UniProtKB/TrEMBL annotation:
<keyword id="KW-0547">Nucleotide-binding</keyword>
<keyword id="KW-0662">Pyridine nucleotide biosynthesis</keyword>
<dbReference type="InterPro" id="IPR005248">
    <property type="entry name" value="NadD/NMNAT"/>
</dbReference>
<dbReference type="GO" id="GO:0005524">
    <property type="term" value="F:ATP binding"/>
</dbReference>
<comment type="pathway">
    <text>Cofactor biosynthesis; NAD(+) biosynthesis; deamido-NAD(+) from nicotinate D-ribonucleotide: step 1/1.</text>
</comment>
<comment type="similarity">
    <text>Belongs to the NadD family.</text>
</comment>
<dbReference type="InterPro" id="IPR014729">
    <property type="entry name" value="Rossmann-like_a/b/a_fold"/>
</dbReference>
<keyword id="KW-0067">ATP-binding</keyword>
<comment type="function">
    <text>Catalyzes the reversible adenylation of nicotinate mononucleotide (NaMN) to nicotinic acid adenine dinucleotide (NaAD).</text>
</comment>
<feature type="domain" description="Cytidyltransferase-like">
    <location>
        <begin position="12"/>
        <end position="195"/>
    </location>
</feature>
<protein>
    <recommendedName>
        <fullName>Probable nicotinate-nucleotide adenylyltransferase</fullName>
        <ecNumber>2.7.7.18</ecNumber>
    </recommendedName>
</protein>
<dbReference type="GO" id="GO:0004515">
    <property type="term" value="F:nicotinate-nucleotide adenylyltransferase activity"/>
</dbReference>
<keyword id="KW-0548">Nucleotidyltransferase</keyword>
<dbReference type="InterPro" id="IPR004821">
    <property type="entry name" value="Cyt_trans-like"/>
</dbReference>
<dbReference type="GO" id="GO:0009435">
    <property type="term" value="P:NAD+ biosynthetic process"/>
</dbReference>
<keyword id="KW-0520">NAD</keyword>
<keyword id="KW-0808">Transferase</keyword>
Length: 230
């Protein structure tokens, strides 16, 4: 019964990808496989609303993603937020995709637990679960929000309770579920990579070799302000 009701599933993995690294790529691939997602799309943000402006231009970040995804048919690049420009709001991206895909396709937005904790401050955040599922990736041992710990935490605990879903729900329903996945993250961050490059040290083996070559060819992340790394 459930198998016959299976919907086409699309998941978005958003980020600044400044630069893309193996932590992002492994996470996207593991989520795709674990949740049997049909299309896993990496969505670079133009100017994220919740963090500082990326170190290098959207064009460079997008080029590095294109290079990283060469020969990787499992992951796709979705440039819609770059085309739209301005500050990036997830709700606009999901509205746009819903209008494009219709109401039948299952749409998921993946985020880290750190992002979930800031959710109540996102632009029109209540609308997100009307448009898509939210897949939250938690590191083993991390604490989910619990009631009675401040307004935001209480709101989130309620949301987790009301919308809790399973991987099967993601394939049966178009949106509206909040799924928490425990997944071990590779200890790699873009911040560390930027600091290494700015400090004259090598980030080799933390990101695809072809992406490192691009960084070197274009002399990215060398200036002070992208991190001294010492
Ligand atoms: P920065 O160090 O600049 O904050 P970042 O490496 O955390 O960057 P982002 O572009 O901010 O990368 O993150 C995009 C998405 O990838 C987010 O959902 C984030 O939680 C996730 N992510 C970042 N690093 C890892 C990692 N090592 N393993 C799995 N997921 C990661």
């Amino acid at each position: 019964m459930a198998a016959r009701q299976r919907r086409h599933t699309i998941a978005l993995f958003g980020g600044t990808f400044d630069p893309v690294h193996f932590g992002h790529l492994r996470m996207a691939l593991e989520l795709k496989e674990a949740l049997a997602i049909d299309e896993m799309r990496l969505v670079p943000s133009h100017r994220p609303a919740h963090r500082e402006t990326p170190g290098v231009s959207a064009e460079h970040r997008c080029q590095m993603l294109e290079i990283a995804l060469r020969g990787c048919p499992e992951l796709q690049l979705d440039k819609r937020e770059l085309r739209r420009g301005g500050a990036t709001y997830t709700v606009d991206t999901l509205e746009e995709l819903r209008a494009e895909l219709g109401t039948e396709v299952s749409l998921s937005f993946c985020m880290g637990l750190d992002s979930l904790l800031t959710l109540p401050s996102w632009h029109r955040w209540e609308r997100l679960l009307e448009l898509a599922h939210l897949v939250v990736v938690a590191r083993p041992g991390w604490q989910l929000p619990q009631g009675g710990r401040g307004a935001d935490q209480g709101e989130l605990a309620q949301l987790l309770g009301d919308h809790a879903g399973t991987p099967e729900d993601l394939r049966r329903e178009a949106g509206g579920r909040l799924l928490v996945r425990e997944q071990t993250l590779l200890p790699i961050s873009a911040t560390h990579i930027r600091q290494l490059v700015a400090g004259g040290r090598s980030p080799r083996f933390l990101l695809p070799a072809a992406v490192l070559e691009y960084i070197e060819d274009h002399q990215l992340y060398r200036e002070a302000g992208t991190g001294s790394g010492q």
